[in-house]
Design a protein that fits this description.
Radius of gyration: 23 Å
Number of strands: 8
Strand content: 5-15%
Structural class: alpha+beta
Number of domains: 2
Distance between the termini: 62 Å
Number of helices: 16
Order of helices and strands: EEHEEHEHEEEHHHHHHHHHHHHH
Length: 417
């Protein structure tokens, strides 16, 4: 890299925009190609293979030798894929000037790496993004050799588990997959068991019984999360509980209260909610599965797991486009997916997650029976009792310290007594 600049990754909702509500935590990764190769799996969420990784970098100030990492995109070794990746990067940069790029190619053969690095250089140059350097490695493994394709300088890839990005990922409980195939498998429906099907869908805005049922579902989910946080239950055990997964499925499809699942993922609860959503997605089908994939993508993005979040959103889009009988649930999921996709393209996916989490709190503290429902006294009394339990669970299950660090003003919960 030019003038031996210091490169750092900025832990914000976006590396190209500034959100005053989200604190910046710069992570120094230096300029050593071996260190940057080692950081790529943590940046991307999986260990890339037979890929070209394009790292966009932005000067901190005019003529600065200190850069911050912008969008990081992966492309297959094909011109069309590289062109798509560069277009996505350009879109995310929002017309920022003086953007540079670093190219890291992973492939067993050098001639292939050189061919597609040169292809990327041309495509980037057409969009006024200058390539500062290109490096090649046969695989991203600790101690593997990297080669500078221009200067012929060589070195070793640093330990994959001993770099600032890995430490950052570990602190946040981020998943790192061994390959793209493993990430795809993580999202695949489970085929060796009977799928889970939630009760018949009814709009809670029009049914007092469903409004009460959704409150019960939310209590089940929140109690399970709280037990895991307190060490009273294991996450692996919760992922096998049919009652918990069915409650998540029912809650996810509710038009108003589904954001509560994102609220519950703020802070150190993110890995818990991520695994519960992923397990539910694998065991459900059709509209419910597609809605859960959209919510899972939101949770991943909020936890700084940008690349898995992006791939999960891609999978959601692919499944939404398959021939099916679309209904009310899919209609809203399609809108959600469109907004989330735009957020990824603009580098604002983490900020979007926070807004969704806010909506979850709003609906939670304003939940009630439908205004026009002919409610019996017994049902109203039962709802009041369950809603008091619901509010108590909400107070225990949400990481309010993390929530208040993201949201300017945290609402006061209604009195649950």
């Amino acid at each position: 890299m030019e003038d031996n600049p210091m490169t750092f990754f900025d832990d914000t909702s976006s590396n190209t925009t500034t959100d005053p509500d989200i604190p910046h935590h710069p992570i120094l990764i230096g300029s050593d190609p071996g260190a940057i190769f080692a950081a790529l799996p943590s940046m991307m969420g999986f260990v890339p293979d037979r890929s070209l990784i394009i790292v966009g970098i932005i000067p901190e100030a005019p003529h600065s030798t200190r850069f911050r990492v912008g969008p990081v995109v992966r492309a297959d070794l094909a011109e069309e894929s590289i062109d798509d990746a560069v277009r996505a990067m350009d879109h995310a940069l929002c017309d920022m000037e003086d953007v540079r790029a670093l190219l890291y190619c992973v492939h067993p053969h050098r001639d292939v790496a050189e061919e597609y690095s040169e292809c990327a250089d041309r495509i980037l140059d057409d969009r006024d993004m200058r390539v500062l350097g290109s490096w090649w490695a046969t695989a991203i493994e600790t101690g593997a050799t990297w080669i500078d394709l221009e200067s012929e300088e060589t070195g070793e890839i640093a330990p994959l588990t001993d770099n600032p990005m890995h430490s950052h990922s570990a602190v946040h409980g981020a998943k790192v997959f061994s390959s793209r195939a493993e990430l795809d498998h993580w999202l695949d429906p489970t085929t060796n068991i009977q799928p889970l099907y939630a009760r018949t869908f009814v709009d809670s805005g029009e049914s007092e019984k469903e409004s009460l049922a959704i409150v019960r579902d939310a209590i089940t989910v929140m109690e399970s999360i709280t037990e895991i946080v307190r060490g009273e239950a294991a996450l692996e055990q919760a992922c096998t509980r049919r009652k918990v997964l069915l409650a998540i499925a029912a809650l996810s499809r509710d038009e108003r209260l589904h954001p509560l699942l994102v609220t519950l993922s703020v802070g150190d609860r993110a890995p818990i909610v991520r695994e519960l959503l992923a397990e539910t997605a694998r065991k459900t089908r059709t509209q419910v599965r597609r809605r859960i994939l959209a919510l899972l993508s939101t949770v991943l993005a909020g936890n700084g797991e940008g690349m898995p979040a992006f791939h999960t959103l891609q999978r959601c889009g692919e499944e939404l486009r398959r021939p099916s009988r679309a209904g009310e649930i899919d209609a809203l999921t399609t809108l959600m997916r469109g907004h989330l996709w735009q957020g990824h393209m603009e580098g604002k996916s983490k900020a979007q997650m926070i807004r969704v989490a806010e909506h979850g709190v709003f609906w939670a503290i304003n939940w009630g029976l439908p205004d026009e429902a002919e409610t019996t006294e017994r049902l109203r009394r039962e709802f009041t009792q369950h809603y008091a339990t619901f509010l108590n669970c909400l107070e225990q299950a949400v990481d309010w310290d993390a929530f208040s660090a993201c949201v300017p003003s945290v609402p006061d919960l209604p009195d649950s007594a």
